[in-house]
Amino acid sequence: MPERILITGGAGFIGSHLARRLLRDGNVVRALDSLVEQVHGGCRRPAYLEDDVELVVGDVRDREAVDQALREIDVVVHLAARVGVGQSMYEVADYASANTHGTGVLLQAMMKRPPRKLVVASSMSIYGEGLYRDVGGRVRPGTERSREQLEGARWELQDEDGRTLEPIPTAEWKPPALASQYALGKFDQERMCLLFGSAYSVPTVALRLFNVYGPDQALSNPYTGVLAIFAARLLNGRPPLIFEDGEQRRDFVSVADVAHGCALAIAHDGADGQALNIGSGSRTTVAEIARRLAAILDGRGCEPVITGKYRFGDVRHCFADVGAAQRLLGYAPAVELEAGMLELARWLEGRVSEDRVEAAAAELAAHGLTI
Ligand SMILES: NC(=O)c1ccc[n+]([C@@H]2O[C@H](COP(=O)([O-])OP(=O)(O)OC[C@H]3O[C@@H](n4cnc5c(N)ncnc54)[C@H](O)[C@@H]3O)[C@@H](O)[C@H]2O)c1
Prior knowledge:
371 residues; alpha/beta; Rossmann fold; three-stranded mixed β-sheet; 12 helices; 16 strands; binds nicotinamide-adenine-dinucleotide
């Protein structure tokens, strides 16, 4: 049965893909989006947003705009957020306001007429470091790297005797280790929505998204989306800049799979009241992804530069255990990395983009956030 679905942040990268998916399933979709300059350039309705999406231009902190956007809505998907991890460390007030306060305004507005379902985008960033196993086979949540270790460029996590720990897929039970203002805000969003859901009997699901990639990710935003950042460099004939030694492992998940996971969370009740990982379930090093992207964008194939620098708050390895999403929602990632990257490359073909990566890196350094 078709539903009326509001996506906050619906003009953004994930929101627009989700909107297309939900329209295809026969729903009516409205987006509430303030068209943040850093993401959207001239603050215009993005061309990639389906014509059938009703766009309410407004801020999630603005109660009037939120009330207007919520009118006659059955389902709310809350994606609106400032999304730069490094940037959140110096634009603290704005991140807290948009992400935490904004969620509060949305929840209060929903009390009047609670939706049938609420889905909120959380993030793998709340985990900090992923899970590790030591040589004796014991799982070690909560191990971190010391500043001294990082200054000595000893990148891998170690046990007390200096033996390297083995990274393993991170499951939802891992306690959060919030290493940035962004991560703290995402955890706020997740917990606030789940609390709201249990207090007001609104079936609510938080999706902890891993590294999402795909067409339409803002190339203009140098603060988020590692593949988009690398692409912006390559399109300008410059090599991707990689922190540490490039061997850090991540879980790159196609935006199509994320939209699918979100659609499942809307349609099914198996995950209500829970926070679930949505990833690809596989792991790739950052250097590998940079090399593959460079190779795919042939002609511009620049070798990535390994900077040996460390960014405050970065983790060494984190990739998803998607078992719970599989069990509770029937989620199964369908897009292989190779196919997803080819689709990304097709979208990148012929695109121009200003490379703001060095300016963003300089800003981090000026705030003492890189070593
Ligand atoms: N892309 C990823 O890899 C990833 C990973 C984990 C979690 N997430 C989460 O998924 C969600 C969507 O991310 P995305 O990658 O599509 O980012 P995006 O920047 O493309 O989209 C976010 C959208 O929210 C809008 N927005 C920001 N602040 C707003 C406000 N105060 N009021 C109204 N609209 C506002 C922006 O204009 C933008 O269109 C975010 O909550 C993000 O934290 C993304």
